[in-house]
Amino acid sequence: MSLIEKLHRIRPYPTLRIESDAGGEAHWLYMHADNDRPCFRTELMHDMWSYLSSITLRDSQRATGKLRHVVLASDASAFNLGGDLALFSRLIRDGNRERLLDYARRCVEGVHHFHTGLGGDVRTIALVQGDALGGGLELALSCHTIVAEEGVDMGLPEVLFGLFPGMGAYSFLCKRVSPQLAERIILEGRIYSSDELHRLGVVDILVPKGQGATAVQDLIRRQQRAPHAHLALNAVRGISQPVGYDELMGITEVWVDTALALDERSLRTMDRIVKAQARRSMAEAAG
Question: Looking at residue 4, what is its pLDDT?
């Protein structure tokens, strides 16, 4: 085997499995390819941002009428369980506002990039086939379309340890449901089924178990039949229903200050959740 062949087999993004079509029109990003905790660890965030930056086109590179798609999915049984609570707990105990804000800023940059369609020529799709909790649901909400399979758990449980989802949940939910309902979803902290969130208008497309990928492929084919219309709607969405970067950053700074005020009881709850996530990952890897 030549050196070139060996290099081609190296995966440049250890936490991701990536599938792209030959024309570069559809990119499928499967998170958690490394079988570690299915949450937003810094390694995953780095890989996602690096890959998305590599496929984001400059204005001069975009061809008129060329619509692209990015699909977010998961190789784990969960879509994504949210923020890295182990990191949060450590930084809060250390009183390290700078690092906590840096983490939050990176999250905001990511969801804003998805929300704006990687500069405007991309339709983003979240394929939710497993639990989407906290920041995992926020990521899905930042996409243009949420396709979920039946019976999946989805929710924003941060209130259980004294926090709120601070990386876009309120802003993105308010584009799908009333502000009153958005606040209730956040403050009650309950876990919904994907079926319930579809009835509420949070999930766009609900399909039976095992049919999510096919539903996404069908959606991409339909949208590619009218690329100009969907590109135009991306622009219209940015005018009519914008979620600005400054808005997201203002909210996440409130989140950081709230997190730093948490007491030891709340932090111990975080620690218990981290242990449960680790056990789940180990059981999945062993199985």
Answer: 37
pLDDT at 8 over 80: no
Could you list the residue range(s) of the whole structural domain that residue 264 is in?
Answer: 12-49+62-211+226-286
Q: How many CB atoms lie within 10 A of CB 166?
A: 25
Could you tell me the two tokens for 281?
């990952």
Tokens, residue 188: 């009650």
Nearest to 103 by CA among 44, 50, 183: 44
Over residues 17-54, the pLDDT tens digits come to 999 988 889 999 999 999 899 999 999 999 999 999 99
Closest CA to 235 of 107, 147, 122: 122
Split at pLDDT 50, 70, 90, the class of 77 is very high
Contact 33, 53 (CB under 8 A): no
Asked whether residue 3 is domain-assigned, the answer is: no
Structure tokens at 194: 């994907």
For residue 9, name the pLDDT band (cuts at 50, 70, 90).
very low
DSSP assignment of 189-240: -PEEEHHHHHHHTSSSEEE-TT-HHHHHHHHHHHHHTSHHHHHHHHHHHHHH
Enter the pTM of the model. 0.94
Question: What ranges make up the beta strands (E) of the chain?
Answer: 17-20, 26-31, 68-74, 122-128, 132-133, 145-149, 153-155, 191-193, 205-207
Count up the domains in the chain and report the number.
1
The answer for 159, left when phi > 0, alpha when psi is -120 to 50, beta otherwise, is alpha
- Is 108 contained in some domain? yes
Residue 92: CATH number of its domain:
3.90.226.10
In a domain, 54, yes or no: no
Q: Is residue 150 part of a domain?
A: yes
Copy the structure tokens of residue 47.
């890989």
The first and second tokens of residue 207, run together, are 């399909």
